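[scheduler] slot 2 assigned
[scheduler] job type: sequence-to-structure, two independent chains
[scheduler] chain ordering preserved from manifest
[runner] begin chain α
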Amino acid sequence: MNKDISAVLKNNIEYLNSELNTDKNFDIICRTLKIADRQAGFYFIDGFVKDDIMEKVLEFFYGIKAEEMAKDMHEFSHQFLPYVEVDILNNWNAILTNILSGVLCLFIDGYDSCLAIDCRTYPMRSVEEPEKDKTLRGSRDGFVETVVFNTALIRRRIRSPKLSVEMLQVGKSSRTDVVVCSMDDRVDTQFLERMKERINSIQVDSLTMNQESLAECLYHRKWFNPFPKLKHTERPDTAASALLEGNIIILVDNSPSAMILPTSIFDIVEEADDYYFPPVTGTYLRLSRFAITLMTYLLTPLFLLLMQNPEWIPQSFAFIMVKDQVNIPILAQFLILELAIDGLRLAALNTPSMLTTPLSVIAALVLGEFSVNSGWFNAEVMLYMAFVAVSNYSQASFELGYALKFMRIITLILTALFNLFGFVAGVLITILSIALNRTLSGKSYLYPLIPFNGKQLFRRIFRIKLGSQSGRES
């Protein structure tokens, strides 16, 4: 690839045809034409080029006279190309990457450089509200699979010259566009440079799974700690808010979400609805979500502990006791239902949208009513697991939901085996998994609780007026 670009058009065309296999790839087009008295050729990928813009450009080319031709490509682009997004390329690696990215590349006989004309159009879906990150109020737009449109959605919200949007490429074969966004006056510059160095040093063939592949390359986390290091969002307003708080946003082409880092446990449980309502309502929503998240972890292990020690139950709460005969151990019931809930979730994911609601109703009626009547499950167990299943949707992070699920199963098993000591051990394992976790910047996962910062902790727990807030520490 060290071959120099030739001033002879025929040599360049032969080289590109060989590299791009234009005889096999029907969508890579080589079009030859005459500009003034010189032969020219341009390469593009069918489906990416805007036809109306190309027609306008070609009209100017056909109107050029021989005596008007420029002495080099740089002068030619200034005199005869009335288009904004153009670049002069002198490197074959850059030329091949641009062609395969959909940029039109023009070669003219007698010029030893290439003119890249970015008149791409992207096949994409409309900018609509994300299915997962919904809000009761607020904007209804969301990220799409095209990284250029995602950066535009952020620029629309932050009109500051301090906003930096840098593009990098990852993957030997895929050359996936990765965009790093930050606020120059608020970001931790050392952490930002470290992240860019890590991205540039990634040695992979391609980012097969987009953001997840990049995340695994950025941080080789210990497999036994399931708590997420990153927060994912499909909402531009959430990404913009994180940038203004000093965080870094990473966008990956072909992925309709953004990665926010560094991220603590308090960042993950926050949601946009907290800020789209008045402070009192926002505080209530936030505290409710904290409480429900805690209950999804503790409810079933605590119930199992009390069933193993019925003498601990006060007389006023005797109604929580299992009244029917227990045919299957309660632990086995909980574990079967944990698996069944994931099975139903996967079934719903692969069910056509028009059938999702009726099938969900049928599943709830059949599996709920008949599993109790048949003696497989007790009604109390079904009730508590139904609460856990519904409560998992009270927060948007799938990763946090599954982390709590794994911790809940471990606590259930330890409680069944070792009674109270097992319950305490399970809770301690969960606490230590969170406390010993670190953000990507190396700071505490529990900041501002550990290390303690009262002012910041108050703001993380309570929703205060916007005018009273200042930039957060990460």
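[runner] end chain α
[runner] begin chain β
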Amino acid sequence: MNQDFAPEVTAVLDGVRDLLPTLRERAEEGERLRVIPDASIKELEETGFFRLLQPKRYGGIEADPVAFYTAVRDIASADGATGWVASVVGVHPWQVALFADEAQQAVWGDDQSVRLSSSYAPTGKAVITEGGFKLSGKWSFSSGSDHCSWVLLGGLVFNVEGQVVDFRTFMVPREKYQVVDVWNVVGLRGTGSNDIVVEETFIPEAFTLSMGETGQCKGPGQAVNTSDLYKLPFHSIFTSTIATPIIGMAKGAYAEHVEMQQKRVRAAYLGEKASLDPFAAVRIARASSEIDAAWALLINNLREEQAHVAKGEQIPLELRLRVRRDQVLGTARSIEAIDTLFEASGGRALAEGTYLQRAWRDAHAGRVHAANDPERALQMYGGHQFGHKVDPGMY
């Protein structure tokens, strides 16, 4: 697949793949620390991974997003937690590119390797004031926050009368927020998805982005970052960012399961070789089909959106809803595949240190992310077929 990408992008993907054995070896260390080891972040940075979606104006690559998702899938196939953090931290340069250039300059002007974490649920409060907003509150689940010096936070905007008038993303520098260590969980332990606390602080207008605007595939940063990359729908890019690591986990679980079964002798079945069990072969075939389908639909939908952008056309709401439909079902397919493989792997798959048991825990942890809520996404798609009104800003 590398031949489909520019040489600079191919070099990043090759570098990522060379790292996979090392990332896999560090998975237990990440679980113990409850954060991705610094060495893994440093080595991913050295491959150019975190610059894939960053504007060229600030040392980025402006790569095909399919290349980004390919790298994320591969990283997650070695370690789900590292893949998750790589995905959510690696996608943020794409959104920063939509902010006013003043904000981009503040992030990357002195150091083009600066990273950002996020927490988009509007659990904070912003009040309009002269020149910007007063922001305060607490946000949860900011994956990779220990490795970042800025954060992107979702917040409802209130006017002076106390009425909600907007929903914005606020870009906040490290000196204005606190990371609170609360991440004690059974899955995705290594992601360090801790809380962010902001005491009331002033955020200039240029350091905010209206979700109403991004819902229309717009942002002030498009005036200086003119690539088609930055004209794709926010929700298509970000929800795919959440689904892809889980597809990668399924890919890694599949590889380990096949390897285990080739060596496994089933004592309960009179020493039968698992590789000769026809039912085991059927499970492998079904699981591989689900994983392939999840990936193929994700990429095909993105390619269709890119084709519309390349022609200067508005992306149809039908397609944007289909992206969400197939994204949540892609997550479901991947988890179903992992469940099938895990259940068929025997007691040794339960051992600490195996990829399979960790992928099982990590994938189910990733499933509870709001972006993977299947009923809401499917209801919107199905309702649209019946003529129900749908807010395109949410898709």
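[runner] end chain β
[qc] chain β: The first strand starts at residue 116 and ends at 129.
[scheduler] slot 2 released
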